[in-house]
């Protein structure tokens, strides 16, 4: 029951990511495990070009900077003695925008 619902939530997040962003990309920035308290901490980033920007192709100019949005966060996974994750906690999320000239 637990793993199926977790994968279903991840699949729905992936679908939402593709709905809001063109070519969403996920990166793992760092990962550390702490055996003393049974946690794994993952720092991650999701980036992409907003779909609304892609759909406005008539406004596109080659000299115009490209807007890329990214979200950074830290996930803490709590692992029990049997080696299974029993809690996934999202500690913080930061949203950034940058503009790149292609």
UniProtKB/TrEMBL annotation:
It comes from Lottia gigantea (Giant owl limpet). The lineage of its organism: Eukaryota, Metazoa, Spiralia, Lophotrochozoa, Mollusca. InterPro entries: DUF2358 (IPR018790). This is Uncharacterized protein.
């Amino acid at each position: 029951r637990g793993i199926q619902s977790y994968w279903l939530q991840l699949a729905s997040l992936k679908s939402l990511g593709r709905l809001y962003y063109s070519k969403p990309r996920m990166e793992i920035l760092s990962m550390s495990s702490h055996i003393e308290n049974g946690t794994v901490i993952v720092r991650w980033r999701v980036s992409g070009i907003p779909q609304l920007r892609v759909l406005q192709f008539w406004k596109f100019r080659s000299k115009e900077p490209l807007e890329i949005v990214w979200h950074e966060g830290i996930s803490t996974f709590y692992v029990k003695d049997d080696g299974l994750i029993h809690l996934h906690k999202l500690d913080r999320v930061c949203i950034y925008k940058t503009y790149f000239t292609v």
